[in-house]
Queue: 4 jobs
Job 1
Amino acid sequence: MLAGLMTSYDRWAQFADEWDAACKKPPGLAYFKLSQALSLRDEFSPSKGWTEDLRNERVAELVAIARRHALCGFSVSLNETIYNEFVTNFTPFGELRDPYFLCFYQLVDAVTSARENQPTAEDLDYIFDEQGDVGKLAGAWWDQLHIVAQWRTTRPLGSRPVHRNDKKFRPLQAADLFAGLVRNEVEQGERMTPFVREFLRGFKGMDYYERVYARDDLLDIGADLVVRGVRRKQERRRDGRG
């Protein structure tokens, strides 16, 4: 699953100031990670003065800040086990052996589509956490994605993805918050903890572009890849390449 937030440069600057101020409120956070907040550890450790009630209050405040400044949110999700069964095992294309390539491609497509409905003509910048594998792969995939996309859209895709330290770059912390809440909902469904669901409700009303690959979708992709693979082998034999 990939998810994130989009807004203008000016809004991100305003956001960063408010987020930083909220994080500095006692007991204080050097940085924010949702996983630490939900489990009351590390930056949210009780030894630093954090309680469940104080945690809930602070996360709700951070959700409100992110919601106030974000123009829209995105998520692309699929079942990795099903993907590997129907797609990875049959694709002749190296990039598609990694489910995150499909998620990344769909995320870029969703972002460029949504941009047309937003009151900004600024360039698109994709910023990933430098600690995550996806951000590193996204840079490597960028040229291939341009080749694929040119047959499907004339919209500018934006700039090549870059990486930032999520402990220092506040917008990535907001993206972690949003993505973590969406992932929790996808994975937990009706079993989602009530207070976590309440955090997610804080984003209600924000434009949200969601793409979900169900089992049948992945089966269709796998079937198409089998056909493409057969054609490629036939072409190679015809060209005398084995």
Job 2
Amino acid sequence: MYTTDRKPEGVLLVTVIEAKKLAKKDFISKNDPYVELWLEDDSRQTTRVIDNTNNPLWNSQFTFPIEENCPRNKVHFRVFDQDYIGKDLIGEASVEFEQVADAPSMDVWITLRNRKNEKKSQGELHVGLEFRAS
């Protein structure tokens, strides 16, 4: 039997609402975007792919259990363009977990970058975050 000393601290609810002005990665058509999201030590979760748009609407909710003493500095987001073979990174962003834990809920637009030091926006991602303590 598996046991752990970690105690549940709560649940983080993340809603990936929409994106706008995504940088074009397809040569012929618009992007087929989806979002990958995760915490520091969690497995990744993904939205569905929305075909042929640079302004997708997902309204997808994800749940992350938060356990005591687990590393969770940031909530990470990566937006990809799904291709027939593989995927192209459109952009990425993070939200500090402390910002979420300090507020009952957040509704924010975050700027996507495709490299950590790149200044040019690759679009914006609209997310909702809510921490519910146990």
Job 3
Amino acid sequence: MVSPVSLAFMALAALISVAVPVGAMLWIWSRRTPDGARRWPHVWRPFAAGALAFVLAQVVTRMPLMALVVPNLPEPWPSVLMSGPGASFSAGLFEETAR
């Protein structure tokens, strides 16, 4: 069973990993020039493009591939040693392709 403290910190980490980028985007978007116009009115476009690239690279392509490969590895401990480099390589390959 997972301890409540671990769950609380996992929830805090999830909140921070979403709230900080969204908060930074909203802060940048709200900046104005001296005449009152928005300084960066389209800052959400690269933010949305990055989020979409991450979802496509990780959720749509990499995770299904890993779901096919990892269960076919024979033993639990060698599985960890073998899937670590493969997971690292596939993460780099798919993320860099998405960028």
Job 4
Amino acid sequence: MTTIIQKMNPETGLSELRCRLPKQMRQAVTDLIEADSGSEYFYKLLTDHAQIQLLLIEHNPQEHYTECHCFSTDMGDPGYAYESLPLFSIRMFAEMAGSLNLA
């Protein structure tokens, strides 16, 4: 399994990330990042022989929000799955799981 974690460089980050993504996810990720030039992006890319998962955090200090995006696909699958939640909601899930001892 390969894992890459980094802050996206504003000038070169998108092109570096695009070359690591499968075709079915590439355009959706590009559209998301290009839609908001005021945000900073951080990502974790997980790959193995069967699946690719991109965890993307979008932080916009001017508009005071942080959104978590998750893209995933199976190798050979022409589609991909996508979910998006604010960081606040992710923290709520983590607290809920912790209170239920589901760690």
